[in-house]
Amino acid sequence: MKKKRTGYAFIAPAFLTLGFLVFLPTLQGMLMSFFSGPMARPFTEFVGLKNFIAVLKNPRTVDAILRTFVFAASVVVSICVLGLVFALSIEAITRMRRFVRTLLMMPWVISGVIAGLTWRWVLDAHYGVFNDILRRLGLINQPIAWLGEPKTALLFVIIASVWRSYPFVMVNILAALQTVDRVQYESAYLDGANALQKFWYVTFPNLKVVVMPVVLMQVIWQLQNYDLIAGMTGGAGPVNSTETLPVHIYITAFQNFKFNNAAAAGVILLAFTLVFSIIYIRSYFRALED
Amino acid sequence: MTKMPRHRHRRFAKMRSTFKKKLLPVCVILIGVLMVGVPFIWIITTSIKPQDQIFTIPISYFPKQVTLQHYIHAWKTEPLIRWYTNTIIVSVSSTVLGMILATLAGYGFSRFRIKGRLPLLVIILLSQMFPQILIVIPYFVWMSRFNLVDSYLSLILAYLGSILPFSTWTLKGFFDTVPRELDQAAKIDGCGEIATFLRIILPLSLPGIGAATLFAFLTAWNNYLLTLILVTKSTMLTLNVGVTKFISDFGIQWGSLNAVVVLTALPIVLAFIFLERYMVAGLTSGAVKG
What confidence tens digit (pLDDT) does each residue in B134-160 have? Predict the structure, then answer.
């Protein structure tokens, strides 16, 4: 390794930029949450924890927080299962692997809004594919507005997000599967293991190392998910049933124009993502030590 | 039961078990292909169906007539070309800037014995995980104060903030895989630090840089939240936000909306199909051990 000084020169531009574009606004946002003022001058008056109290007293905020966790947890668990199932299936076939992989990765390449809008049209009550298929299968006989009903809107938002995000897990598991030592499989076979045992004792432990950071990244990402929800239901959805914390923050800031309250809610969201970020970083460095 | 010679029995048994082994993965993959394909095809066919055929029951899956009326209507009612140019300008600029900074920083982290290297790396990792919805609030306050709302500059800077962390991290990983012996060989041949970087290491890392660039471009192109907040004029929108202009309180112009969805997603999907190998490499750079 080389001298320190040139090294600093290499990393300085990126750090300065990040300082201005990420850290400074984050700090400002955090500060904003302790102040109050009109939109143009949000630092007019110091109010301590007043914004936080106001935000947390609002039942809508508490609902949004709970909903965010339900959303994130459901999505992450589902994409792990789906990603694993697809990765194993791709690994099991011998022909057209790359074609299938490319095809199954498609949902991840489009943007969150586009994915949301796609599903919005698919789920259209009268003219959407989903209801049409259900009708042809004889499962329903009336148009049901899946995204219009408070009870089902969140469910389908979760489904759409799973659809969009599973490729990320799938691709990483596929890559990890390639690195598993064939010898371990052979010795398992010689020990008389069947398919299920082979998976549990050979495949799974090797995957754990790779899947952990991927899962954590997705948790952090899904907690902040705004684009897809906005595309699917416009944001809050019927009776606010799809209002997660990011959506709530957006509404507070840019529809109710309460920037300071929004900043406070944003700090709460930041706290959640920080917890998972720290877990991620610790697990990363622990893995490095191995 | 017919008496079959033993060797033939064994061959059939093997065929049967291979068939069973392949049947499940193939079924799973078929379901996956449908799951991905149906929404995409639905969007495309809707965008080329005449208006009356979109809104008929029962739904026709394959358009009896093909029309470009929705694309034309979208182009007439909204500044589509502007949206395209805006998206391209902002995405390309932020990607280029981001990649220059990230390459320098990635190389710096990989090759130099920087004091506090680990904490700095942690900072880069962390900066990826701050909620964009929080950062965007101070962004908006700043940009309005500097009169930069509705400007390319504000968008480019904002996008840069979202591209830089992940790109730096990925590129550091790629540089780590380039053997140090090359650096030493270059030094023996009389190259200084910068010459080593520019003439030896950089050309060898092109695949990795290419992967990271694609990824960064994808992130930029697909951005929604930043543009949503930093742009108010219709002519300065990007495609992803512009597409939502076809949703109003009076209803959704599904034909035109689907047309713009296709126009927005098509470049990325095409790029992905051709460059998929590199994108996957970029995604899984963290997955493979050692």
Answer: 999 999 998 888 888 889 999 999 999
The residue of B99, B129, B153, B262 whose CB has the most chain A CBs within 10 angstroms, and thus the best one to mutate to test that interface, is B129
Among A3, A8, A16, A18, pick the best mutation site for testing chain B contact (most B Cβ within 10 A): A18
> What are the structure tokens assigned to B138, written together?
């101070």
User: In whole angstroms, how far apart are CA B28 and each of A7, A82, B4, B40?
Assistant: 50, 10, 34, 19
Residue that wins the pLDDT comparison between B279 and A55:
A55
Contact at CB, A11 and B104, closer than 8 angstroms: yes
A·B CB contacts under 8 A: 293
> Could B168 and A14 be called an inter-chain contact, meaning their C-beta atoms sit closer than 8 Å?
yes
Q: A157 exposed, middle or buried (CB, 10 Å; 0-12, 13-18, 19+)? A: buried
Give the nearest partner residue to B114 out of A7, A40, A129, using CB atoms. Answer: A7
**Looking at CA atoms only, how far is residue A8 from chain B in angstroms?**
7
- The 3-state DSSP class for residue B21 equals helix
Task: Choose the closest CB to B55 out of A22, A24, A127.
Answer: A127
A278: nearest CA partner in chain B: B126
Can you give the pLDDT at residue B288?
Answer: 43
**Contact at 8 Å (CB) between B174 and B106?**
yes
Would you state the pLDDT for residue A122?
A: 93
Alpha-carbon span A68 to A226, nearest angstrom:
11
Q: Which of A8, A16, A17, A169 to mutate to test the interface with B (most CBs of B within 10 A)?
A: A17
Query: Tens of pLDDT along A152-189?
Result: 999 999 999 999 999 999 998 988 888 776 777 777 77
Give the largest Cα separation in chain A, rounded: 74
**Chain A residues close to B61, C-beta within 8 Å:** 129
**How near does any CA of chain A get to the CA of B46, in Å?**
10
Distance of alpha carbon B76 from alpha carbon A45, whole angstroms? 48
pLDDT, position A177: 84
